[in-house]
Design the sequence.
């Protein structure tokens, strides 16, 4: 039996357009003795979009996910900072508002036969690695040190009270500490917690692209040769829309952007072929 066991909430992007995150999660979990228990039938967290139209629906859906984890006696683990921030916000509202919690539980009981009691925690992979697994344990398992200057991107959604573990809300350090034990040189840059505009990309593309370019150019200006993102949703902007962001903003944004789980998996000796490809991209782009 694994020493560390969590109810696994990968998020929609991880299970669809960013399957590389799922691959890396399963790989690092195996190396670090983490058991990821699937939450079969769990719904989307809302991604910051659903609540704009119907927050009651979003809260009910997330309460159902929480209740499913509670039935297993487990905390929820996600590799997505947007899911973490969004779900933590709903968890706090449910925990603090007894009337709302009872109203939602009436719905859950009538539809699913379960209740949310607030007995679990909502956790991001980053916080689990630092607080539960331990940096010393991770350091001992590193086989391929990631010897690049790396910019860790937290994003803005997770950096709110109750959503970022024991890390500092305004000046988080967990990502930098993790990068150092993985062999990298952690780049300190001001934009590590700034938004890249997702999902505003769908309605305010020009503004979102400029926000994305600001984060990338800031990191590159401070010496980063690669960016690792704690948010698969933000990664869409940072990677897929990188060229367009540079064109719109006129800034130097050329930089490989990968996911946090990939960074960890590579360092732990998994997917050496992908690590080799990353090294090539760093040589070509990260100068």
Sequence:
């Amino acid at each position: 039996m694994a020493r560390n066991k969590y109810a696994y909430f990968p998020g929609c992007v991880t299970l669809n357009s960013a399957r590389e995150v799922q691959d890396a999660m399963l790989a690092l979990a195996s190396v670090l003795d983490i058991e990821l228990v699937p939450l079969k039938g769990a719904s989307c967290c809302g991604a910051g979009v659903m609540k704009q139209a119907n927050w009651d629906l979003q809260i009910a859906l997330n309460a159902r996910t929480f209740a499913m984890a509670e039935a297993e006696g487990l905390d929820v683990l996600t590799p997505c900072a947007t899911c973490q921030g969004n779900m933590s916000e709903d968890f706090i509202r449910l925990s603090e508002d007894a009337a709302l919690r009872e109203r939602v539980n009436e719905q859950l009981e009538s539809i699913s036969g379960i209740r949310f009691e607030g007995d679990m925690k909502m956790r991001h992979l980053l916080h689990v690695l630092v607080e539960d697994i331990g940096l010393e344990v991770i350091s001992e398992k590193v086989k391929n040190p990631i010897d690049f200057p790396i910019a860790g991107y937290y994003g803005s959604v997770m950096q709110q009270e109750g959503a970022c573990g024991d890390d500092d809300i305004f000046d988080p350090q967990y990502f930098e500490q993790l990068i150092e034990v993985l062999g990298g040189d952690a780049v300190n840059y001001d934009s590590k917690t700034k938004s890249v505009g997702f999902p505003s990309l769908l309605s305010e593309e020009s503004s979102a692209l400029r926000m994305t370019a600001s984060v990338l150019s800031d990191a590159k200006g401070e010496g980063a040769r690669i960016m690792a993102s704690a948010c698969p949703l933000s990664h869409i902007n940072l990677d897929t829309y990188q060229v367009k962001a540079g064109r719109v903003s006129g800034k130097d944004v050329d930089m490989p952007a990968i996911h946090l789980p990939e960074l960890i998996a590579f360092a732990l000796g998994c997917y050496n072929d992908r690590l080799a490809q990353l090294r090539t991209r760093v040589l070509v782009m990260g100068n």
